[in-house]
Amino acid sequence: MTQHAQKLLFLSLRNGPIGPAVSHAEYHDTLRATGLTTDDVELRTIADESDELGSLDGIAGIVVGGSSLNITNAEYSPWQNHVHGILADIIEGEVPVFFVCYGISWLTHHLGGTISHSHPEASGPTIVSLTDAASDDPLLAGLPKLFTALTGHTENPDGTLPAKLSLLADGPTCPVQIVRYRDRVWATQFHAEMDAAAMKTRMDFYYDYGYFPQEDYDDIIAGLPSVDTVTSNEIVKRFAQHCLSH
C-alpha cells in the first residue's frame, strides 16, 4: 500500500530499559497484522514527558499500543499525565484512532467511567462476543459474532459505560472488550495485533508484572499456537484499510 501518500502512525507508550524493545515488537506485530510495511506505518514513542506527538500532516490513522501504565494508580507521574494530555488531544481530532488494551481504560476514565480490577484476564486467550451495535460498524460488520483473541490485563472498565461510548463487544470473562467513541475512535481490551509468537514475546518482556501466574507460564505458552487470532487481527487490518482508503 506504499502508493498512498498518507500513512499510519503507530504511537508507542513504553518507557524504561525495555521500552524500546517492546515498542519495536508492538510495531512489528501491527505491521504483520495489517499487512503493511515500514514505509506505510511510522513509529513514534512517548517515553517521557519531554516527547511530543509531532505533526499529524500526512497521517491517515493512529494505532496506540499498550502500556505498563495503570489508570488505577493512586498518583500519576509527569510522564503519565503527559501521555493523557496527548491522548485527549488526538481523540477529538479528525484522524481515526485505534487503542489497544491500556487505551480502553484510559478512554473510559477520560469520559467519566470507572476503572477497577474486577475482571482481570491472565495472559492468554479470551472469547469476544460482538453486540448488535457492531453490525454496522465499519471495522466489525460481517465478522463472526464470537471469536478468540489474545489478552492480558490487570484492570478494566467497570460498571455502566459513559454515554458517549458505544459497547461493540463484551465477553464471558470481561464485560467490555470493544468500544467506540464518536465515529472514528475504537478501543479493544484484548491485543488485536497479537498472534501466538507476539504473545510469548510480550510475556517474556513482562514476566514479573503480574499479567499471569509465573507457575502457569509453560502451560500458557504451550497453548498459544492453538488460539485462532485471524478475526482479531482482521480488525486491525480493517482499521488500516478504513483509514488509508478515505
From TrEMBL:
Top-level EC class: ligase
Instruction: List keywords of the entry alphabetically.
Output: Ligase
- Look up the domain of life of the source: Bacteria
Q: Which PROSITE patterns match?
A: GATASE_TYPE_1
Q: Name one GO molecular function term.
A: GMP synthase (glutamine-hydrolyzing) activity
Enzyme Commission number: 6.3.5.2
Q: Name one Pfam family in it.
A: GATase
Question: In what residue span(s) does the Glutamine amidotransferase domain sit?
Answer: 29-203
Put simply, this protein is called GMP synthase (Glutamine-hydrolyzing)
Which InterPro entries would you find in this protein's record?
ChyE-like, Class_I_gatase-like, GATASE
The answer to whether keyword NADP applies is no
Q: Which Gene Ontology cellular component annotation is one that this UniProt entry carries?
A: cytosol
